[in-house]
Every structure is written in structure tokens, then in C-alpha cells.
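Running this now, will post back.
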Amino acid sequence: MPLDRRFSVAPMMDWTDRHDRYFLRQISSCVLLYTEMVTTGAILHGDREKLLGFDEAEHPLALQLGGSDPKDLATCAKVAEDWGYVEVNLNVGCPSDRVQSGSFGACLMGEPELVADCFAAMQGATSLPVTVKCRIGIDDQEPEVALRDFIAKVSGAGCKTFIIHARMAWLEGLSPKENRDVPPLNYDLVYAVKQENPDLEIIINGGIMTLEETDAHLEKCDGVMMGRAAYQTPFILNTVDQRYFGGADKPKSEHEIVRDMLPYIEAHMARGGSLFQVTRHMLGLFHGVPGARLWRRYLSENAYKKEAGLEVLMAALDFVPERDPAFFEMKESV
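Update: finished.
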């Protein structure tokens, strides 16, 4: 069965690790999740369990790769299949110094022929779908020309799915953080690319903060990838299954989500992990709810301590009154 990419959560360095993904999966069963970008060098020479391991509950889960050597990418695409991922995604959008020094990520927007070669090598090595996540251009490129040329050359190699972050990436003069905010968004260009390429699956990404915005984008694109909003205000995902995937299960409350995390956290700590490694991803769960500030502060000040256990999490939960189930039924019917 083809992957349903109508709604996905973006790969985000230092954020979408296995603990965050397990947490997000307690909120939505259906959204497509992505790993942080993992470089080919790390996979070829590093600890694969640490880099690639995940809980089966995280599915559907895709692996994002960073690299520019077709042979290495092909090897890692096969590794992704062997490890049980459902998709392999090539990063052609990250503007960090790390990827620039390695000549991959957003740098590859300037080398569409190489990206086409990378895609072909990857797809030839695995039965998994291989996708590409890109920007609309870099530096002094003219995005209306650069993006169309990029799409034409890479789709010519067989790529059918493009996730397009609707901003330029400025590799000179802007930090990675600034590259997420400063270059203006150009959603209309992404819409135009979809209209011109009806046979391609075009997923739009960049600056999408609400489900109402998601609805508008889905009228003109095949899917939406949400980034920071899904991390900083994760409860936004609690109705996504019903809204976009035909889910029949009643959305959980925030307190139910926390309680469902307890066995996972307990098992993680039994293996020598810390409470904060998991709860740092949960700080935004109660965003906009009375008591949210106290929840965040208590966890931030106490969960990192060496002796911190589940009692810290439960004490933080006490600061936030549990809402009546009728509230969620009302929200669901709106």
C-alpha cells in the first residue's frame, strides 16, 4: 500500500529523535514521522543501533539521509530497508555549516545532475520509496528557474515525490536558524510546480503553524509537512488522524498522553537513560492550557537531575488540571 503523506512531521536536528517520535506517536497514529538527518558516513562507520534504532510503535517512520556520494547513499538506502524503515529521504535542504563542509544538504540544489545520480543509485538499491526534500533555491539562484530545473532533472531520474521547503537557503550570511525564518516563503511557486507536474507528489513545507493553514495547502498540494509547530505545540496533532486519515479513535487528552508515556519512560530509565532525555520533548504538550508554564518550569528545573524519576513527571502534571472529556468531544465535533 502506498504511503499516505497527506500530513507528516519534518525531520529536525536535535528534536525528532526516537524519544520525541515515540511521544508524537502517542498523539497521532497516522502521521508520517521522519528521523533526524543521519549522514552516510555515520551509518557506514558508526553505531547503527544508536543511529537507526527505533521502537516499532514509531511506524510509519522514514529515514532521512545526508550525503552526496551515490554509492554511499545506495548502501545506506539498503541499510534503511534492512532496519525496517518505510521510506528513505535525501536531504537537499539543510543549510548548516556541517553540510556545507561536506558538500551535501542545500548545497546540492546547485547540482541537480548529481542529485539525480544519487536518487537513481538509492532507488536501485532498495524497494523502499526514495524521496527528496529540497529548498526552492540557494543564494543567487532565481527560484522560479532553479526549482523547476531541479524538479525536471531529478524527476527525470525517476523521483516521484518531492518535499519542498518553500524558502530559499542562503548559504552565505545567514545561520541555519535564520534560514528557517528570514528568507521569505513562496508558497505560490510550490503550488505552480504541482500544477505543472500533476503526476508528481508534491509535499509543501515551511512556516505552517495551524491545521487551518494545512487545509488550505492541501487544496493545492498533495501533502503538508509540519515542522516546529508539531514540536513546540505537539497537541496540535491530536485531531490529525480524524481530520486527514479517517481515524475512528477518539483523540486523547493531554493527561492520557502523559500516562501512556510512563511505561516507555520507565523502560528507558531502566536501561540507564535519564528522565530529561524524554521529557524535554514534552514541554510544549500543554501549550495554551492553564498551568502550562508551571508544567514547563518544573520539568525544566527538575527532570535533568540525576535522581529524577517518574515522580517528577507526575508532580509536574499536578500543576495542570485535567480537562473534562466533554471538552474533547466538543472539539472533535466542531
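DSSP finds 16 helices and ten strands in the chain. More later if anyone needs it.
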